[in-house]
Design a protein that fits this description.
Low-confidence stretches: 1-10
Helix content: 55-70%
Mean pLDDT: 75
Largest sheet: 5 strands, mixed
Number of helices: 14
Number of domains: 3
Strand order of the largest sheet: 5-6-7-9-8
Distance between the termini: 54 Å
Order of helices and strands: EEHHHHHHHEEHHHHHEHEEHEE
Length: about 400
């Protein structure tokens, strides 16, 4: 692990630049070790490939032979990609695929790595020792004949760039194998499909649990707390009428006003959890109830004879509520438009205003949280808010009939 510009680089690819940082890090030695292991392990696997393929043709021995090949590949991969090597080693479902990959890598990369290491082992020492070697016999370097001492004195200077080139070639071989290893899936398509189905079932179960809990909390607040507040307000009102002095009546009047404010706040809270109008009468009625106290003109166009699936309907309501809140608080809007329709088996909801625009959907938690809920239903939310051009929030969600 080395640092570049104050940022730690933890992979071979990210450590290649600048050259000085690369040379002083641990990665050149890892790349050299990887290339050496490629020659040894890959060459061994390549030599034994025919016997191994014969063994793999026997059903009872196939997995054991494939695991042997994969183990050899893991020993090399661990030098540059420990996490990937560990995943390969723990995978029990893609052994044959990994074994085939290992044979291909052995056939292609082992000769290349051998050529690079052999060339470096010959060229770099020859360049360094050129002034000594040229005294006895002319030397040949990169197809060039060196016969004089002045020319030989230049060659040690070239040794450093040559060594750097060898290190970078070793790194290129290691990175190539690493990238190829990352493209190889650890599980089959069938297993991935089973996992996707399991995750979808789990997600559906979580959504069901959330909906049930939300409905339970809404019921407790509506049928329990709200009724008790109504009873408290009535009791205070009766006490206010029978109070014997002005001071007591004023205190009771203040208490009654506070109860009324608490009731309004509770109703807003219930609407934010799961409004009763939504569950009983649908999105149109719940939205009309939501618009009752707004200080802006709203054009409302929602289907009166169609109700989307419950989860889509609930999320649509909260998208409308959040968009209205943002328009009133931040957009300085004078008019708003709310439209929804079913288009090609997809529910499309659009909420727009004529405000100042410039809204940043990532700056708040409201629309971000709603985008996650819409995403759980397979839908999307987009926000368009150019400065001075108003804000448009669009929700699209598939409808499963």
């Amino acid at each position: 692990m080395n640092r570049r510009g104050g940022i730690r680089t933890t992979s071979l690819g990210s450590s290649l630049y600048p050259p000085l940082g690369f040379v002083t890090s641990r990665w050149p030695w890892r790349a050299l070790l990887y290339c050496a292991s490629t020659v040894v392990v890959g060459g061994t696997v390549l030599i034994l490939s025919i016997p191994l393929l014969i063994v793999m043709s026997v059903p009872g021995w196939r997995d054991a032979a494939a695991r042997t090949i994969v183990t050899a590949e893991v020993s090399r991969l661990r030098v540059i990609e420990p996490a990937k090597a560990r995943a390969w080693n723990e995978s029990n479902t893609a052994v044959l695929r990994h074994a085939a990959y290992s044979l291909v890598v052995a056939a292609v990369l082992a000769p290349v790595a051998a050529a690079v290491l052999l060339g470096g082992a010959i060229a770099v020492p020859t360049l360094l020792a050129a002034p000594v070697l040229v005294r006895s016999d002319p030397i040949s370097v990169f197809s060039l004949q060196v016969t004089t001492m002045p020319a030989a004195l230049v060659l040690p200077v070239i040794a450093l760039p040559a060594a750097m080139l060898i290190l970078y070639l070793c790194a290129a071989i290691a990175i190539t194998n690493s990238e190829l290893a990352h493209t190889l899936p650890l599980r089959s398509t069938e297993e991935l499909e089973v996992e996707v189905d399991r995750l979808q079932t789990s997600r559906t179960g979580l959504l069901d649990a959330f909906d049930t809990e939300r409905a339970r909390i809404e019921g407790m607040l509506h049928d329990g707390v709200q009724h008790r507040l109504v009873a408290v307000g009535l009791s205070i009102g009766l006490a206010e009428q029978s109070a014997g002095d002005d001071r007591t009546r004023e205190l009771l009047r203040t208490a009654h006003r506070q109860v009324d404010e608490s009731m309004r706040e509770l109703r807003r809270t219930i609407r934010g959890i799961l409004p009763q109008a939504l569950t009983e009468s649908g999105l149109l009625a719940a939205t009309e109830d939501l618009l009752g106290e707004l200080p802006v003109d709203v054009s409302l166009s929602l289907p009166a004879d169609y109700r989307p699936p419950p989860r889509v309907e609930q999320v649509s309501y909260f998208v409308i509520s959040e968009a209205i809140t943002n328009s009133i608080k931040h957009a300085q809007a004078g008019t708003m438009s709310i439209t929804a329709a079913v288009i090609d088996d997809s529910w499309r909801l659009v909420v727009s205003d004529d405000g100042i625009g410039g809204a940043d959907p990532d700056s708040g938690r409201g629309l971000t949280g709603l985008s996650h809920r819409v995403g759980a239903l397979g839908g999307t939310i987009s926000v368009s808010s150019p400065p001075g051009g108003g804000t448009t929030v669009e929700m699209r969600c598939p409808i499963q009939h």
